[in-house]
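ok so I'm stuck.
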Amino acid sequence: MPRILSLIASSTEIVCALGFEGQLVGRSHECDFPTSVQSLPFCTEPKFNVDGTSAEIDQRVKSILQEALSVYRIDEIKLKELKPDIIITQSQCEVCAVSMSDVNKAVSGLIGSKPQIVSLEPNQLTDLWNDINLVSEALKVPNEGKKLVRELKQRIKNIEDEARKIVKKPTVACIEWIDPLMAAGNWMPELVELGGGINLFGESGKHSPWMNWDNLKESDPDIILILPCGYNIERTKSEMTPLIEKPDWFQLKAVKNRQVYITDGNQYFNRPGPRLVESLEIIAEILHPIYFNFGHENIGWELLDTKL
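replied:
not stuck anymore, here's the structure
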């Protein structure tokens, strides 16, 4: 059986969904689901201090990216100890995981071993299906990959079919970073539309765009979803001050109508693995609670107390 090293959280979830958790020998420092994988050794770490405000982290990341391709480093000694047959990484985002060039450089230092490198590049939902099939082929279980894709697509179709029956669709702003403001791109516009909403910012298949306060104020969305990359619900709530202190925050329609939601962006929306289907479920039950209830409230999302 292959010895698998997964360097992104989403691929770890794909490997486990395909039934190969037992073959994982290592992970990235961000791989934490299923929780059982946390007992595995990790061989990546950030090059910056992850503590601090959204603005401080943004500045640190931008500073590092001016000098390097990735904001993470690989523990090459640990890599040699793990002796993987297959390494799964990504080439989609330089702030999501170690860069492909860093992986190639680390692998070139291995003596007597040439692990297969599987590089994923998820930009939209179609790419997720391709990635699952790519991993399943590398693991020599292509039929299992096709089966998993069929199951995930069917769950999405069930929600999409129900959402199509809904006449009134709210406008939605998805915020992927709070300070500075960034809208959500990639697969998020698709998920919003599938869940019965009208996405206002970001384009399907394209990287998340920066935005400014005037953009948000002028669009005045019906619903605001806060889903910062890498943040859970509690940390997101602690980072809301830059938004709440805006002079016109309490004039926004979504704020006045108590339609601002804090979500676990780290576990769901920003992790392009099988749980993007759960992300769609979260969106659907937030946008249309009369029609959808998957039980994600207080786990994947919370209503923001607009009086904070």
